[in-house]
Amino acid sequence: MLFKNFNLSDELLKAAALLGYEEALPVQEKVIPALLADRDVLVQSKTGSGKTASYAIPEIEKIDWLGNEPQVLVLTPTRELARQVQVDFKSLGAYKRINAVTLFGKQPFKSQIMDLKQKVHVVVGTAGRVLDHLERGTLNLDHVHTCILDEADEMLNLGFIEEVTKILSYLPAKCTMAMFSATINDSIKEIAETYLHDAEVIKVGEVKKYNTNVDLFYVKADKECKEEQLLKVLYKELPQQAMIFCNFRESVEQVFDLLCEKRISCLMIHGGLMQEERLANMRDFKKGKYRVLVATDVAGRGIDVANVTHVINYEFPTTTEDFIHRIGRCGRVDKKGKAISLVLPTQMKYLNMVQEELETELACIDEQAFEGVVYDSILSRSEEIRQKEEVIDEDKCKLYFKGGRNKKLRAKDLVGAIMDVPGVEFNDIGIIEVLETTSYAEILNGKGELVLRGLQGKSIKNKQITVEKKR
């Protein structure tokens, strides 16, 4: 089914087309009509199936731009996934001028409060920080018409059930509920029965629990030469991009040092890094600036990096669930992927457990397959990838105004000044932020330079305000 057949607005269809959305994926074909009709849904869908767009598209369509309070709440298990969901909402909602903010821990609380004082349509966050804002009275959910629980099973696994249920108690009585989960267990069913009403149950994909787009292999590892085996795997496969998973941060650092020593283009992520560094590393990896990302399971859930072709388990996971979510980082949507695990003799019990629970077998790669492997310098190079938000940004310009609440400026004052520029229409104006001493305005449809020239030397609210293009 084509997206244009969903009866969506021209603004949303324009953004979707620029982002490469043409034909709906199975989960999108089923979820979009349900949410457009305000029906509760319980969705079981494998990772990498396109589920974020399946709820972002209908919710963007339903948002009333004139409203100043949040209308959509999305809860995620990790801050990395929250950031990704925010990007998807802002990219798909660019021409409808949708503003989405993130709320998660280890971010300054004060800056989040400032974000919430702006016009906010969508709030995406982790349960702990969202509940913190609700209890302090800095987040108002009275106008939320839809609540999304993304990766609901993982939120429960991480012990957020109490926070989630408290958050749900703040929602309006007629709020539409949507739960997305890779698995539907008894805990998920209990939440669904309590908070979802006449929910449509949607199951997409094969019955198998794992991403069958990924071919599964293992190598019999030797503790004494495991690092050398890892290098042979990398140089034999020459992945476009790869994620290497370890069970401990010390192992991540050890592998990272090894790859750096061999001049392989790489980054690392683990829970011991500062949040800013983790987010920056993930952003650079998604942009293709680095070929390999070494990580603990902090990066194993819900992160969408389009060009990851290989997942390598340097240390085999101790649970089937961790195995599923690791390998789900490749083979996204309709692409093929390859997962290779280095398995020590002491870890064979975990391999057997995974094979039994997934009702599949991992093919063993014989040591002879690595004979004659050339240590090619290609792994030291990377190729930047255009991100979907950058496609939208090409048509968008952000202007900086040297004045804010200190000069009694309001959003409507900036709108009025911009609309006075000949050739500019209301639909050319995106998100406007008025801060204490500065303000920002997004100009859409390629009219940024026109507006910038038109505002030079002009006064706003009888005040001379410097206007520049944000760098």
TrEMBL record:
SMART domains: DEXDc, HELICc
Keyword Cytoplasm: no
One Gene Ontology cellular component annotation held by this UniProt entry: cytosol
Xref: InterPro entries: DbpA/CsdA_RNA-bd_dom, DEAD/DEAH_box_helicase_dom, DEAD/DEAH_RhlB, DEAD_box_RNA_helicase, Helicase_ATP-bd, Helicase_C-like, Nucleotide-bd_a/b_plait_sf, P-loop_NTPase
Domain of life: Bacteria
All residue ranges annotated as the DEAD-box RNA helicase Q domain in the record: 1-29
Residue span(s) of domain Helicase C-terminal: 226-373
PANTHER family tied to this protein: ATP-DEPENDENT RNA HELICASE DBPA (PTHR47959:SF1), ATP-DEPENDENT RNA HELICASE RHLE-RELATED (PTHR47959)
Protein name, UniProt field: ATP-dependent RNA helicase DbpA
